[in-house]
Amino acid sequence: MANWGRIETVLEGRIAQVKGLQYYRSVTEISEIHTPTADRIRRNIPAWQSGRLKNQKNENFFIPLQDVIFLDIETRGLKYKNQTFLNGIAYYHKKRKTFVFDGLFARDPYEEKAILKSLELIVQSRKGIITFNGAFDLSRLENRFKAHLINWVWPRDKHLDMYHAISPYNKFEGVDGRKLTDYEVAIFRFKRECDDVAGAEIPKAHSKYLRGGNPEPLARVVKHNMLDIITTAALYVYLLRNPDYFNESLLSDLSF
After folding, report:
1. Nearest-10 crossing angle of helices 216-241, 202-210
2. Hey, how many other C-beta atoms are within 10 angstroms of the C-beta on 178?
3. Which of 25, 85, 144, 206 is the most exposed place for a label (fewest CB within 10 A)?
4. Other CB atoms within 10 Å distance of the CB of residue 191
5. What distance in Å separates the CA atoms of residue 214 and residue 2, rounded to the nearest whole number?
C-alpha cells in the first residue's frame, strides 16, 4: 500500500474485525493519558460511577457513567460525499473497568463500513451521546451509514452538545463563543503541544497517506482526536460539578 508503511507501524493498536470486515482499532486507557483534562476525569470516575456526582442541580442532564459515550469523527472533507476515516469515542469499558478512548480507524476507504458497524455495536446500549459542536458529526454519520445501506439514526433527544451546554460560562466570562482548546486553557490550564494537528490539515494528511505517504501525521491526527474527546468529557464533568454554568434551555429537547 505505502512506501512509508501502514498506520499500524506508528500507532499502537490491533487489527479488529466486525461482521467479517477489518479495520484498525487503537484503545487508550485514561491512566495512559497525562493531561489536566484526563486528570479531571480520573478524579471523578468513582463519584460518577457510584452516582454521588448526581445532585438536585444537575440531575436533569446527568448521564450515568456506563450509559454515556463521547464522540468526535474525522473525515476526508466537509462535503457529505467525503468518507469518514476515524470514529473516535470515549466511554467506560466494562471489561477493562476503566474509562477509555477508542479510535476506530479505516486504513483505506473500503474499511469505512467496518468502523461504522463497530460504532453501531458500541453505542447501541448507551443512553446518551455527548459531542462538542457535533451536529455535523451526527448528520455526517447518518449519511455515511445510508451510503452503506445501513439504517442508523441517533435520536436527537439523546445528544448533548457541549458547545451549547456550556454557553452560560461564556456569558459569565464576557466572551462570545469559544473553541475547545480555549476551554482547555481557561478552565484546565492546559495548552497543547505545538505538534498538534490543525483541523484544516487533517483531510490533506489522510489523502497523502492513501497515496503512500508517511503515516506519522495520521498518528498525530488520532492523538488530536483523543485530546478533543477527553476535553469534551472533562467539560461535561466540569458542568456536573458546576451546574450553574449549564444552559438549561436545552433541557426541553433532551430525554436521557
Report:
1. 150
2. 18
3. 25
4. 11
5. 8
CB 41 within 8 A of CB 230: yes
> DSSP strand E in the chain: where?
14-18, 21-29, 68-75, 84-93, 98-105, 128-131, 159-161
Strand pairing category for 128-131 and 68-75:
parallel
What amino acid is encoded at 115 in this protein? I
This prediction has a pTM of 0.94
Instruction: For 118-176, write each residue's pLDDT tens digit.
Output: 999 999 889 999 999 998 899 899 999 999 999 888 888 999 999 999 999 998 887 77
Residue type for position 46:
P
CATH ID of 7-253, from 2.60.120, 3.30.420, 2.40.50, 1.25.10? 3.30.420
Q: What is the pLDDT of residues 9-57, one digit of tens each?
A: 899 999 999 989 999 999 999 999 999 999 999 999 999 999 999 999 9
Beta strands 98-105 and 128-131: pairing type?
unpaired
